[in-house]
Amino acid sequence: MRRGIKLAVLALGLLTAGLALAQNPGPLRRIGEFRISTGLHIGGIEFGGISGLERDPATGRYLALSDDRAERGPVRLYEMDIGIDARGIAKLEILRTIELTDEAGKPFPRLATDPEAIRIAPNGNLVWASEGDQQGRPALFEADRNGRALRRFALPDYYMPDPGKTRGVVGNLAHEGLAFSPDGRRLYALTENALAQDGPVANRQEGSLSRLLVLDFASGQPLAEYAYRTEPVRLASTRNPPVEDNGVSEILMMPDGQLIVVERTFALGAGNMIHLFRVRPEGGTNVLGRASLKEGEPVIPLAKELLMTLREGDFGLDLDNIEALALGPMLDGRQTLVFASDNNFNRNGQVTQFVVFALEPR
Description:
By secondary structure, this protein is an all-beta fold. The protein is 2% helix and 45% strand.
């Protein structure tokens, strides 16, 4: 059912739009912000959990992936119309909901998948990542535009958790970012933090050794794999019990073949901090086939260059849980970037936040 957010605004008063404020120096220039209060329902299903975002170059519309594990409705994504111009975000309309189903066309059962990232493939299909099923096993799917899974990509066995959780992806820290190479031949998938056998998750003292898996899109088979070291946790909790983390929450391929990697730090009471890095997705040690990065020759991670750090209050923003990033339209010759946050379906202070920046030429 087609349902516009503008109608929901009149009925429920759930949305607020922000205009561009005074700019902070740096490579990003804020264009605008749009916030959706938690609690909006569309067709009886709660909107939220946005963990992946992709702009369809054929239509200019956006696909926003929810990380709802079939607990509040079907596993789903939303097709959206986000009107962006030099003055800000002129409109944000939810056009339709698309249910994601398995290879048999059946709905995913409750907790059977955990959607976290989405991209449009060169053939027009969808590719999306699940952090884990009921046994914690991650998966990468190719689906048609109606949401039905067509195939699963081959993941190395060492990504699969064992019963003792001494190997494989750590719960809720698997693939958070997907990207295609500019020629569309290679698919990149990056974990939020290290596999259990590779080292600790990020903490105040050290970062975590994530893995960037490179797959051949045509065959679905791995081609290479590189280590990516995240930053340590850069914020300290101001409330008890302390909760602090940092990890990769999204990746985005730029036209020049470099990735933008989003690292999100959260600390209870202190809020969020977002680091943006430029990363060339080759040049480190190829670790494909190495079940543990603690064994064998030393590992050289991918080189990374800090693009910008966003802190609470920068650009006048109250940063939320940024988990999605997409290329937006070109404005005055500048590439725009569209960020979106996951509200965790939490009505206690969290919202779904869309923020648009223009990337200044280097």
